[in-house]
Structures are given as structure tokens and as C-alpha cells.
Backbone:
């Protein structure tokens, strides 16, 4: 464990309990690394990636793979951990858990790259994968560690992990690299690997750059305040959905693709070039539009690219000027954009000790819309797990089949947009979260089906789908097998071995396992059963049992209000 410090807004914080150090390569250092490795800067690397890196959708085990589970600067992983430290809360340690959990996506024979004891235990549990360990743990991001090795290694004597990766690519040119997201630093690393191996192109299980960098954010769904005010307001008797569509038509997404996506009323707020006065004006105008156009009283304030639902402010009174000004101050703390959308009164479905909000997700896997979908397990606004459902079983969670079909149709429309008009932007993986909710105001009591969040990259549902595939194989059948995964918070001594022992053996008609554990930080467990509702109940019961045995710090069921 590292014993170092980080500085956050002038405060020095102890960097304790993390598997990796807090060092980062600065933008200037990354620029220098790119020039030394590729002969061009970061802008040149971005241009080169368009022709040298190819999005390639492939199912697990279909082709050889390198699994590179680095956390991404695009999602602000480091900043999210530091923000939790500053608040005196336990961070997730994104770098450690992403490297460790990614091992679960490897097929036998695949190469898995990572660092630290949680990753090593995940490799041991996976069995027939090839471990490529990186000894450099000073850097928070695995990509930064590998770039440092690349720039300091003589070309004729590469550092061992780099040599292993280059040899794999030379021997199996069809190898696909699986990773969380292609950020600028990872792009440089991938281009260098591709060139060192002498390949004409490198296949990536990741979306094309335009999807990853332009459309993979909540603001894709919303017009800016400036765009929205140009749209005429509603007449007295107009259907609010007509205005909703009219506002959507001025978004960059609709102008680019001509596709209307199902969405909530809301507006994007631009951080770049905004001082606090301008940001206050944007927030207040967005709130006024929601009140005057849609008759809404409450809003929801979200960062455009936050991880797992963090830093969301729900139930914001749209006529409360001090509260709106506080949101503007929050938006000024980072360089990211925000959205202010309608607050949703979700449909709900109760199981013993827990109440699901109806926020289903549908996905693209291996370049096409995937079967089924998921119901999310959440703690407040934060994602904590997934339950696999299909059209035959969604009603068990209170989701009408026609609503489930609408969710899947929304993702199909998004997929079609990225592949239409004679071009293919390389949409090979991702998920979209929907709300099945009542908005009130001019919408009355009707339930809307609307996209809320685009996760056009690796996402948590990949793990429930991988666990579902494992469960079906273990049980020897596809039919009547459903799965649920749950994020857990291990106790300080609960490594993967202890968590596995605590999970125990499955019953005769089910399957269960511990997937990941970063002691003291983050873990993942899975349960499969003949019915998705039963799988959900059993994974929550398993978390509760592990908590009461002292293996976990928290339990969602133990924290829930028990039914009377």
C-alpha cells in the first residue's frame, strides 16, 4: 500500500489504503511521451488513430484478446477518488478495482494486464488466462505506468510486460484489445503497441473516437439553454411531448443524425468559457424553462460524464434561487459540463428489504443490440448492480412488456443512427439507462419512457452478462437461467479468497460466486437462479449474510427500511 499525499483545493490529504500511487502524467508530459514514442503530439496521435485503430466487436472467446483494464481519465476516476477522500469518505479505488474486475472478461488463453494483489487474486481465480503483471505502481492509471515503461525501455530490450504484449500481437495479428475507454493516453499506448508489432491496424473492443469523445455524455440528449430558448414555447393545449421533440430537434445529435431519441425535458449547461455569473444565468434559465414550459417544480442536476451516478443532486426546487446558485458553484469546481433535467418519480417494485426503481438498461454487445436488458440495483442515485431480465420476465419487476420493448427500441435507434447514412462510427459496446417514471406538471400522471444516461463504453452490465454466460455453462442450459450481480463493500481484511469462502456453494438449481474484491474498498458478487426476481432477492440476501459475518462493511438490505 502507498503512503503518500495528494493536494485537493489547497488541502493536503493522506493517500492511504490505495493499491496504486497517486502520480499522474501531466498533459505536457503526455505530449512529450507521444512525441517520443510516435513522433507526433497528442493531436497527431488522435488523427493517426482514425486509420490505425479499428473498433471491432467480438464476443468473449471468439478471437484472442488482450484485456487492459485501465481506469480512464475521461471519466475522472482519479478526481472522483480524491473528492471522496476530501469528504472523509471511503473511496472506491477505481484504478485497483477496474484492473481486478476486468480479469473476469477474459477467456482462457487471453492476456490480462494489471497490477496489485487484488488483480493477482482475480487472475488466480480465473484459471487459464495469461497474466501480464506491471510492477510500476507509482501511477494511478495503468496506462500511465505502461507509457512510462515504453518511453524508458530501449527498443531492442523492451520491459517484460511490453515485450509480452508485442509478441502476442505479432503472433496473432487478429487479437482484439479489450479496455474501458480510449482516452488520449491510452490512444498513444495502443498506437505504439500496434507500430511496435508491425501491424497495419489494431483491433479494439471499444467504440470509435467520435462516439467515445463526442456522444458519450449526458449532454447528447439535451439542447443547450441557448438553443432551447430559440424554440417557441407551448400553446395552452399543446401536448408537452410535441415541445419535447421540438427541443430535441435543435440538439447536435438530431442535426447530425436526424434521429429523435426518447428523452426527458432538460438542458445542457456549458462549463467551457463560463465564469460563475454566466453559469448562474444558465442554471436559472434552465430552471425557468422547465417550470414555464413543462409546469415542473423539481429538477435533477447531473455532471455530464460522472461515474456510476455520483455527484447527482436530485429534487432541486426549480424556484429556489439560492439552491440554483449553489448548483452553479458546484459546476464551476471542475471543467465538465452539466445537465439540469426533470426530476423523475420512478415507478417502483418492492422485494423483501429493498425497493427497485424502474430504471432499466439495454445494451450493445459485440457491435449489435444485445438480448434482454437489465434492471439496476442502486443506492440512492449510485449504481450498485444489475439484474438480467427479458421480455418474458420484466413484468415480475413491474415493467410492462410494451415498456420493455420501448427501451430496447430506443437503443436500437441509437445503434442505427451511428451506422446509418452510409457510414459506420464503430458502435461496438455500451449501454443506455432509461427512466420509467412520472414527471407531473403538464405530463400529468402518465408514465414516460426516456433515456437518462448514455454509457457508450465498457459498463457494469458486461459483468452480469459474463456471469450469466458462466452460469448457463455451469448449469448446462440456457433456458430458465437468470443472473444478478451486486457491488459490495469488503471489510479491511476481505480479499477475494475470503470473499469466495464466505459466498459458499450454490444450491442445486442456481450458481453463485465472488467476482472481485479489493479489500476495504470495492467488490462484486453474482447469483444465478431460475427467475430474475429470485436472483435479485438471493444476491441481496447473500450480501446481507456476508455483512453479518463481518466480511463486508455495509449491506443494502440491512440499511433498507424493512416492510412492516
Residues:
Amino acid at each position: 500500500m502507498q503512503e503518500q499525499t495528494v493536494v485537493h483545493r489547497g488541502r493536503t490529504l493522506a493517500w492511504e489504503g490505495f493499491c496504486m500511487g497517486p502520480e499522474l502524467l501531466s498533459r505536457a508530459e503526455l505530449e512529450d511521451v507521444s512525441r517520443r514514442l510516435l513522433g507526433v503530439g497528442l493531436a497527431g496521435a488522435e488523427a493517426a488513430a482514425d486509420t490505425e485503430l479499428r473498433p471491432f466487436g467480438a464476443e468473449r472467446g471468439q478471437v484472442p484478446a488482450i484485456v487492459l483494464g485501465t481506469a480512464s481519465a475521461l471519466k475522472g476516476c482519479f478526481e472522483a477518488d480524491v473528492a471522496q477522500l476530501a469528504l472523509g469518505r471511503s473511496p472506491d479505488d477505481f484504478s485497483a478495482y477496474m484492473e481486478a474486475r476486468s480479469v473476469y472478461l477474459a477467456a482462457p488463453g487471453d492476456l490480462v494486464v494489471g497490477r496489485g494483489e487484488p488483480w493477482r487474486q482475480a487472475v488466480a481465480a480465473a484459471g487459464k488466462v495469461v497474466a501480464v503483471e506491471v510492477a510500476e505502481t507509482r501511477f494511478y492509471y495503468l496506462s500511465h505506468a505502461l507509457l512510462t515503461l515504453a518511453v524508458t525501455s530501449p527498443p531492442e530490450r523492451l520491459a517484460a510486460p511490453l515485450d509480452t504484449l508485442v509478441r502476442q500481437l505479432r503472433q496473432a495479428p487478429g487479437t482484439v484489445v479489450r479496455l474501458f475507454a480510449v482516452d488520449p493516453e491510452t490512444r498513444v499506448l495502443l498506437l505504439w503497441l500496434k507500430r511496435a508489432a508491425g501491424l497495419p491496424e489494431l483491433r479494439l473492443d471499444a467504440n470509435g473516437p467520435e462516439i467515445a469523445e463526442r456522444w458519450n455524455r449526458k449532454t447528447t440528449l439535451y439542447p443547450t439553454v441557448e438553443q432551447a430558448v430559440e424554440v417557441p414555447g407551448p400553446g395552452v393545449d399543446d401536448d408537452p411531448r410535441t415541445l419535447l421533440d421540438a427541443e430535441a430537434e435543435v440538439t447536435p445529435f438530431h442535426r447530425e443524425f436526424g434521429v429523435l431519441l426518447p428523452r426527458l425535458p432538460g438542458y445542457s449547461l456549458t462549463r467551457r468559457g463560463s465564469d460563475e455569473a454566466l453559469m448562474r444565468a444558465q442554471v436559472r434559465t434552465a430552471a425557468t424553462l422547465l417550470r414555464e414550459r413543462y409546469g415542473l417544480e423539481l429538477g435533477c442536476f447531473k455532471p455530464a460524464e460522472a461515474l456510476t451516478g455520483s455527484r447527482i443532486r436530485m429534487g432541486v426546487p426549480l424556484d429556489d434561487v439560492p439552491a440554483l446558485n449553489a448548483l452553479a458553484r458546484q459546476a464551476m469546481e471542475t471543467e465538465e459540463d452539466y445537465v439540469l433535467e426533470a426530476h423523475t418519480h420512478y415507478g417502483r417494485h418492492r422485494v423483501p428489504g429493498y425497493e427497485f426503481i424502474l430504471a432499466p438498461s439495454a445494451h450493445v454487445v459485440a457491435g449489435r443490440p444485445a438480448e434482454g436488458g437489465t434492471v439496476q440495483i442502486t443506492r440512492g442515485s449510485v449504481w450498485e448492480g444489475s439484474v438480467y431480465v427479458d421480455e418474458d420476465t420484466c413484468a415480475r419487476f413491474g415493467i410492462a412488456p410494451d415498456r420493455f420493448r420501448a427501451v430496447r427500441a430506443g437503443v436500437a435507434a441509437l445503434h442505427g443512427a451511428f451506422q446509418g447514412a452510409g457510414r459506420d462510427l464503430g458502435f461496438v459496446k455500451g449501454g443506455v439507462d432509461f427512466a420509467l417514471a412520472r414527471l407531473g406538471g403538464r405530463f400529468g400522471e402518465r408514465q414516460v419512457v426516456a433515456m437518462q444516461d448514455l454509457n457508450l463504453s465498457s459498463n457494469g452490465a458486461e459483468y452480469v452478462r459474463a456471469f450469466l454466460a458462466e452460469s448457463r455453462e455451469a448449469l448446462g442450459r440456457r433456458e430458465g437461467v437468470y443472473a444478478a450481480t451486486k457491488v459490495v463493500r469488503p471489510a479491511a481484511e476481505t480479499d477475494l479468497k475470503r470473499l469466495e469462502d464466505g459466498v459458499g456453494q450454490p444450491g442445486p438449481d442456481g450458481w453463485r460466486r465472488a467476482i472481485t474484491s479489493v479489500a476495504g474498498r470495492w467488490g462484486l458478487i453474482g447469483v444465478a437462479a431460475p427467475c430474475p426476481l429470485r436472483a435479485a432477492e438471493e444476491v441481496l440476501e447473500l450480501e446481507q449474510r456476508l455483512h453479518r459475518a463481518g466480511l463486508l462493511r455495509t449491506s443494502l438490505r440491512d440499511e433498507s427500511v424493512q416492510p412492516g
